[in-house]
């Protein structure tokens, strides 16, 4: 009894002390926290009454607290925090995989890290002030407010958890409470002492889950998600980083026992640096940690992880009400040699193919930057051509450089202060090695404008004008913004010049601003034109074949690469690229160019494209009647299957399909597991086997499924889910370099 009263009076005294200490403070509602440095990336949770902060958060809100600890959890994962009520110190003390009961976090965790000028700050340097939790539908958001007295920064940590997904998402906001501007560098949004049971035999699956390596590991722009997996205990943590392009950094045990997710170091080839003015707020990109217990590492990239990507990540393409299925682009074989007559002939030749989108690539304008139609090619301007395309029941797409301008363009001549400068102080071409001063080609006299200048407004108004006047539905944004995908010279990135018209103070801080403004431009265009499709190419993103979560959260597509070689090499290469990226990013956000509609083996090409995004080039005037009928039949069918099952948002590989090669079989499933239907893709390459059997793990064991061949116009079999899962389906393809496409539907 004496012990009970001693604990009771201690708790009462602590509670009174805590309330008196913060009686004069006012904790804003989470949605009222200072605005982000990503101004377009705002929290979307609705305003609700905040849970009483500090000592307790109710069990109903699923964030549980004691005097100096509190947790955020669901039925699958729990993260517990500890703060020191008497002095500095805040950190995670547990990240628990509830399926195994293992706590992966070890002692001496720092929670985050940032250099504020010359001062290194972590959670250990911060005073806990308060926390609050709100719930919206199946999401719970925990907000923790800290203060770093040494750096004079408010630190606001936001953690999000979703019902039925073993994942915790995180963001950090830094508010400058001092009277001086503070440079922020070396930001670790997440910094934990973390082990998956132990460090013995740890495996790292990097480069979009395609590359097995070992610790220590430092990830780069290819690592939107990195898996740390322990095969001995069959557990792991998938580490997600939503930072853009080359500014992304994920490290596993570069420092002993430390896992960190954040932005590039100031000493890295492409550094992150942000100048934070007094009273301003910087909001980081988000990171996440997803945990699972499974004997197969491939399972980490399936099921509930894909639910997160599809439903919670914020993929722009999935927000489109009517995305196109089949797209045609003019680039090859015509390149920039296009005109009104040619385009209309191509439009007419596509009749009957059920093409959804007609993209006019480079060559329609006189000089990039000004983007006035070339009157020698389009004497009546571009509007009649765009109107003609729409009259033929196709949507219109148009190509633009986002930052590239002709050196003799009016905008470059009138506003030289907007140009990015090289280390010699000259107008820079960040895209390639072309430094000619003039010329009439599509890329002549190329120079790079800064999106951190009023050129941003010029570009935005140019696009707005043509979307409104021409009825454009798709914009291809191309060429370099901050650095080149082709030029590997570390002296040629960013802007060496700062002037009053630019939003950065030095070269290092220009990178963040240039990427930030690129994303902001796409968000503002989407806000005004919700149905507008925006394609941010790998050239804009600055690395060959590059794509990540930041891109797909703001653009609908990424023109990822081009494969110019004919079948079979071209289609196999395309399926390799889709295989290499689609475990981590949605396959339908990937556009891959330069496969011709009029290739001899166009069926093999088409079905290879159709397993992700169906984009083709070529000369439609050369299409045979049989080819047109083929395209029309299959495009209509795929559109109907999309209407029924939204299969484009689903793609399954598991450990069932190998990476495509010339000598094997490959494939993928596109099954909507919520509705029980979708499409099965199988490809026999130059394999000697005419028959293969494939298990189908993404079905319900106790359900029945109908397999249907649109090619043959008949049902090929009725299968139990158990049979599909345990025995599989036998596929017969009699000839090499041939595809088989089947529908699968749950029988009610």
From TrEMBL:
Gene3D superfamilies linked: Aldolase class I, alpha-galactosidase from lactobacil brevis
Residue runs in coiled coils: none
Record's keyword terms, sorted: Glycosidase, Hydrolase
A GO term, aspect molecular function: alpha-galactosidase activity
InterPro entries xrefs: Aldolase_TIM (IPR013785), Alpga-gal_N_sf (IPR038417), Alpha-glycosidase_related (IPR050985), GH (IPR017853)
Pfam families per UniProt: Melibiase
PANTHER family registered for this protein in UniProt: ALPHA-GALACTOSIDASE C-RELATED (PTHR43053:SF3), GLYCOSIDASE FAMILY 31 (PTHR43053)
Name assigned to this protein: Alpha-galactosidase
